[in-house]
Each structure stands twice: as structure tokens, then as C-alpha cells.
């Protein structure tokens, strides 16, 4: 054959081979398709708050099952598949076997997704330590207003610091049974705890157990309002050890303990961890949050200052929409925790999530102090009350270092042993525990965004946090406390440390509260209270208000009221006071009666007032300078907080209050004044 014929033969052989190989591949693909003979669904099983579980069967060997839940969401899961609905309705659920495509359908009727306990609405009672009440009165009034705007009813109970836990629980039980809608309790100040007796050690040899005994604060005692608890008044601890305990060691906290506590062993005193666990398998009826500053050593800050600044930030976060990004950080410090919460996904709750596995201390520091801030910060680390350990680099972050940093997240999940041990152990009167430092101090000009944290009063670890993240994915406007109680109850029986859980801070805030930095063009909106809000610059031809002055929040050193003339305080330049002298050069302005525009935020001031900067306002005046006629110039008088006629030469050498718009011939009175430059 010539060269051309040879080429044709070779080409034809390659073509036949290619076709044959294609047929082989097609046959292989055909044979590899999973054959599904049948797929079917069981009747749905219903839980609380819109939770549904669906079982079923499938024959053959599908790669996976895809669920369309009928509410705009889908998931991939084998039987039984679970889902949580956010609204009451009838939904069509479709499951598809892949890749064969067989489907099955069922109908789900959700009737309890909008129950008040699921949405978080209801009554909250605040137990306030009596010694703190006078200093915190204004803060608590503001908290009441904020909570009522959110839909809660707010009650307050003043108690002494040494009130017995059993008295507190009895009071809660009475409110719970009487009101019918009690959803949570705030414990504000040094409110006593009940304690659980915790035994750890070597239980491997039943004839010779080595036991370590500690006491952990257990707010589960207050959360469970219908369970039965065994109480001990005169603990003996190691003196009660059964014969099979060959070594019994009490932690220092046990020796220093004085008060009521809850005992876990059964009547025979055979200490068995399963029996301990089963004795506290009681669901929570309410959530409990602790707000306190007595156990933190913040330089230059008293307990009331710590709490006042915390409440001021809480108010600002709720009302001012400060624009903290919708972002979550997860920082995992050691290998053993890299998969402990594998199902948790905060990326479904917030717009962005940043996960750092096997984190170094430096990575933790940079994320905690992220300049823009974050909504949630998860820490998984071996810890003790005053420090986190970073396995990668063998480094520690201690309390003193944390105090120096700006903690820039709103809500913290501390999967870190004893990081929230806040309690009354006398070994260290100011424990400076990590959980409290994340939440309560507000010592930096920017940052320190903490409002709440969940963690442990003793040894423990969170498991199945997907319960919490899944709940908030469906209900991002639900309070953290409501989601926390749901997670708490769903996790009962999974791990024995459930009684060590503690919620620090305010449980009524929500993941979406506080606004976020918009990723799209500016949005104009009206919130549930009637406030108009804009994420960008507002341009308008005019603004119409019902009042005629512009005012700003300022700190004052003494009680003042609308119409008072104020001046700079020479003894404390950070505050203002009532004017004191005639023709004072220190005039600042007048306390506004009903401003049309308000600037700033004064919740952080111990005493505050709205200072009118410009416009027309009522002003207190006296006839010390003579009768006042419209158009007269006014200056300060010798009567505190009052203005008078200036009858001297013009220009006036004093600082002007304004120009009278009404006459005044009496000894004192209140007239309208046009404020002028000082």
C-alpha cells in the first residue's frame, strides 16, 4: 500500500476503537446507575416550635436523598430527616433519590411554630440586688422601655444579696404559675447560686475509686421550675464516701463553701455518674441570665460603674443600629475539638462566617479585635477560669491580657472548661473570669461590643450546637435566651455537664438586632416602633418637626429640668451645671422641653439632660434686671438656672442666653426665648 492508503487504514482503526470505547463507557455508566425499586415516607412526627421528623424507606442503593421542605429550603439527609419550620402552615414535603430520580411526597401540618414560647415573647422578671438599685435605677428604667418595645413585659423584684436560692426559686415558681407567660429571669448583681456536687476521677476500678469533689454553680435549679431537687444543708463530702472510694480529694472551693447546695448521689451513696446524670434530667421552663460586676477587677471601675456602662451599651445596641457586620468567627484552639461541633453552621444565620482550626494565639487576638466587629464569636479551647490554652504554639491568653484587648463581638459561645466560673467561691474574691471579661467591661473607646455569652461554671463541653444554630437559622429574630432554652432541653441526657451551663448577660437580644452594614444600596425603612431609619445619607428639601429647637444629650452634675439655664462646670469640665452668677461667661444653653431634633446618645451618663443648641425654647427668667419685653436680650441671673434682662450697653459683655419673645413682669416665670450665639 502506498502512504495515503496506510494512513486511511490507521485512521479507520482508531475510529473503530474510539466508537467501541464509547460503547463500553456508556454500558459502564448504565450499569452504574443505582436502581431504586421503591421509596416511601412514614407519617411525620412533631416536636415543639415547628420541629418535624420524617422516617421512611428506600430500596436499592441511591447516592443520597434530597429533601424539599416546601418552605423554600432543602437539605440532604438519610432517614429520619428533621426540619424546623418558622411559621404555621401546611407544607408539601418531597424527597428525591439521586441519581435515579424516584420521589415520594407527604404533607406536614405545622401548628406550634408561632407559639409565644417559641417566639420569645412573654414576661421577664429581673431580680435586682438591693444595694445596687439606687445607682442603677435609670439604667433599669431604660432596660424596661427597651424590652417593652421589643414585646416583653418587664417585672422587677428587689432582693438582698444573701437571699436563699430556694426562696428565689419559690418566687419564680409563683410568678410562673400565676402569670402563665414567664419566659425568663435576669439575676442582676451578686445573686446567690445553688450548687451541684460534682465527682470526677478514676472510676475504672470498682473496688478502688479515686474521687475528686468540687461544687459548681447550677442555674439549672432556677430554670427548672417543676422538677424535684434534693438539698443538703450540712455537707460532709469525703466523710460520706462509700467503702469503694480509696482516695477522696476535695477541691479548695469545697472547703470554703457555705450555703445551700444540690446533692447528686443516690441514697446509698454509691457514686455513679449515670445516676448523677439521671437525677437532673429536668427540662427548663424559663431561661436565666446573669448580669454582674462584683467579681471583676477593672481598674478605676466600681461594680455600679461596670454595670451602668454595660447597660448603656446594651441600650445603644438596641436603639441606634450601630452597624456591626453580620459575621461570625469560629476559633478552635486544639485538635481534639476540631470536629466537636461539626454540624454547627452560623453561616446560615449570618451573612459571613470565618472558621480558624488549630488556631494560634495571634489568630485569636486578631479576630477578637477585628476593627469592624462581629455578631458571634465561638471559642473552642482547653481553659481554666482565667485563661485559654492554644495548642498550636503552646501559648496562653490570660485574664490580664484579655482585659487589655478590645473584645469586639456581641455574643460569645465559650466551649471552654470553667471559663464562666463566676461564683461565690472565696478562694479568689475577684476571679476575673474570662466569660465576664468578654461581656461586661466597656473600657475602650471603640469596641467592647459584648452583651451575652454562654459557657460553663465548671468542667464541661458543648455538643450538638447545631441544635442552637438550626433554631436561629429558622428564627433569626428570636432572642438568644429562647434559643438557649430550646438547646438546653434538647441536649438533656446527651452530656452530664448540662447543669454547668451558664448564660451571662442579656438573653433578650437577637442575632439580627443592632442593624448591619448593608451590602447593597442605602435602604430607607420604618421599624416596629415607628422610627424612620436610613443606611445612607438623607437628602431632603425640608424637615418638619412638631418642636422648634435642636438639642444634644449632655452629662450634668446635678438634677436639672426643662427651662433651666446651664453653664460649663469649672470644677468638673466633663459636665454641665445650673448657672449660678449674674452675667456669667460660662453659659452653655437651656434644657430643652420638647426638642424637634436630638443629637447624640446620653445613656452612658450617670445624670443627663437635653441641651437646646439653637431654636425657640421655654426659659426660666427672673425680674432681677427689670421687667422683660419682647426683643430684650437675656443673660444669666444670680438665681440658679434663671435668665434676666440685660439693660446695660450693647454689645453685651456677658455671654447671651437669647432674645425674649414674650413679656414677663412677675418676679419669676417661664417665657419663650430665641436662643442666640454665646
Task: Describe the protein.
By secondary structure, this protein is α+β, with helices and mostly antiparallel strands. Among the domains are: 39-114, Immunoglobulins (Immunoglobulin-like, Sandwich); 319-505, Rossmann fold (3-Layer(aba) Sandwich); 549-675, Virus Head Decoration Protein, Chain: A, CATH 2.40.300. It has 13 helices and 39 strands. The strands form 10 sheets. Strands 30, 31, 32, 33, 34, 35, 36, 37, 38 and 39 form a 10-stranded mixed sheet that branches. Strands 20-19-21-25-26-27 form a 6-stranded mixed sheet, with helices on both faces. A 4-stranded antiparallel sheet has the order 6-5-8-9, with no helix packed on it. Strand 8 (89-98) and strand 9 (103-110) form a beta hairpin. Helix 3 runs parallel beside helix 8 (303-320). The termini are far apart. Mean pLDDT is 81; it is low at 5-15, 17-21, 26-34, 264-280 and 516-522.
Short description:
This protein has about 675 residues and is an alpha+beta fold.
Amino acid at each position: 500500500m502506498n502512504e495515503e492508503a496506510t494512513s486511511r487504514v490507521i485512521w479507520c482503526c482508531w475510529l473503530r476503537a474510539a466508537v467501541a470505547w464509547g460503547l463500553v463507557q456508556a454500558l459502564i455508566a448504565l450499569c452504574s446507575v443505582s436502581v431504586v425499586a421503591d421509596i416511601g415516607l412514614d407519617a411525620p412526627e412533631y416536636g415543639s416550635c415547628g420541629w418535624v421528623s420524617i422516617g421512611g424507606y428506600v430500596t436499592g442503593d441511591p447516592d443520597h436523598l434530597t429533601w424539599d421542605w416546601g418552605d423554600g429550603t432543602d437539605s440532604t439527609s438519610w432517614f429520619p430527616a428533621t426540619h424546623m419550620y418558622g411559621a404555621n402552615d401546611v407544607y408539601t414535603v418531597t424527597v428525591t433519590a439521586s441519581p435515579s430520580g424516584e420521589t415520594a411526597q407527604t404533607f406536614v401540618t405545622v401548628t406550634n411554630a408561632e407559639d409565644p414560647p417559641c417566639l420569645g415573647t412573654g414576661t421577664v422578671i429581673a431580680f435586682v440586688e438591693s444595694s445596687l438599685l439606687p445607682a442603677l435605677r435609670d439604667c433599669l428604667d431604660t432596660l424596661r422601655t427597651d424590652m417593652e418595645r421589643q414585646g416583653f413585659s418587664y417585672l422587677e423584684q428587689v432582693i438582698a444579696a444573701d437571699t436563699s436560692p430556694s426562696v428565689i426559686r419559690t418566687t419564680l415558681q409563683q410568678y410562673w404559675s400565676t402569670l402563665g407567660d414567664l419566659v425568663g429571669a435576669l439575676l442582676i448583681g451578686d445573686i446567690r447560686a445553688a450548687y451541684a456536687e460534682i465527682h470526677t476521677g478514676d472510676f475504672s476500678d470498682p473496688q478502688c475509686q479515686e474521687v475528686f469533689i468540687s461544687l459548681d454553680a447550677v442555674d439549672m435549679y432556677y430554670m427548672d421550675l417543676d422538677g424535684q431537687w434534693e438539698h443538703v444543708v450540712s455537707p460532709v463530702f469525703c466523710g460520706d464516701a462509700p467503702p469503694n472510694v480509696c482516695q477522696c480529694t476535695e477541691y479548695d472551693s469545697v472547703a470554703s463553701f457555705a450555703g445551700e447546695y444540690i446533692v447528686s448521689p443516690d441514697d446509698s451513696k454509691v457514686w455513679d455518674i449515670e445516676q448523677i446524670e439521671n437525677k437532673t434530667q429536668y427540662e427548663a421552663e424559663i431561661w436565666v441570665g446573669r448580669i454582674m460586676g462584683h467579681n471583676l477587677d477593672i481598674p478605676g471601675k466600681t461594680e455600679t460603674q461596670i454595670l451602668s456602662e454595660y447597660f448603656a451599651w446594651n441600650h445603644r445596641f438596641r436603639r441606634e443600629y450601630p452597624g456591626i457586620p453580620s459575621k461570625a468567627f469560629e476559633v478552635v484552639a486544639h485538635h481534639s475539638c476540631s470536629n466537636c461541633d461539626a454540624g454547627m453552621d452560623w453561616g446560615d444565620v449570618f451573612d459571613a462566617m470565618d472558621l480558624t482550626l488549630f488556631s494560634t494565639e495571634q489568630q485569636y487576638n486578631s479576630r477578637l479585635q477585628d476593627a469592624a466587629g462581629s455578631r458571634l464569636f465561638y471559642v473552642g479551647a482547653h481553659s481554666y477560669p482565667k485563661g485559654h490554652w492554644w495548642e498550636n504554639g503552646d501559648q496562653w491568653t490570660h485574664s490580664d491580657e484579655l482585659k487589655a484587648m478590645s473584645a469586639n463581638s456581641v455574643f460569645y459561645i465559650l466551649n471552654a472548661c470553667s471559663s464562666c466560673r463566676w461564683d461565690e467561691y472565696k478562694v479568689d474574691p475577684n476571679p476575673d473570669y474570662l466569660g465576664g471579661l468578654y461581656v461586661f467591661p466597656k473600657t475602650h473607646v471603640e469596641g467592647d461590643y459584648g452583651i451575652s455569652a454562654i459557657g460553663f461554671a465548671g468542667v464541661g463541653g458543648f455538643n450538638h450546637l447545631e441544635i442552637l444554630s438550626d433554631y436561629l437559622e429558622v428564627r433569626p429574630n428570636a432572642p438568644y435566651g429562647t434559643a438557649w432554652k430550646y438547646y438546653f432541653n434538647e441536649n438533656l441526657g446527651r452530656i452530664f455537664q448540662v447543669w454547668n451551663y451558664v448564660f451571662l448577660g442579656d438573653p433578650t437580644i437577637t442575632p439580627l438586632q443592632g442593624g448591619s452594614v448593608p451590602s447593597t444600596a442605602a435602604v430607607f425603612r420604618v421599624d416596629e416602633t415607628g422610627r424612620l431609619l436610613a443606611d445612607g445619607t438623607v437628602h431632603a428639601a425640608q424637615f418638619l418637626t412638631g418642636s422648634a429647637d435642636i438639642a444634644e444629650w449632655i452629662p450634668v452634675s446635678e438634677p436639672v429640668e426643662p427651662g433651666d439655664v446651664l453653664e460649663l462646670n469649672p470644677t468638673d469640665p466633663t459636665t454641665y451645671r445650673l448657672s449660678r452668677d449674674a452675667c456669667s461667661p460660662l453659659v452653655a444653653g437651656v434644657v430643652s422641653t420638647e426638642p424637634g431634633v436630638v443629637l447624640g446618645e446620653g445613656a452612658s451618663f450617670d445624670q443627663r439632660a437635653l441641651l437646646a443648641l439653637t431654636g425657640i425654647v421655654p426659659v426660666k427668667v427672673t425680674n432681677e434686671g427689670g421687667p422683660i419685653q419682647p426683643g430684650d436680650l437675656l443673660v444669666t441671673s444670680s438665681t440658679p438656672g434663671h435668665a434676666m434682662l440685660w439693660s446695660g450697653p450693647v454689645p453685651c459683655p456677658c455671654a447671651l442666653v437669647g432674645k425674649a419673645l414674650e413679656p414677663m413682669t412677675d418676679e419669676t416665670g417661664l417665657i419663650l426665648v430665641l436662643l442666640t450665639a454665646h
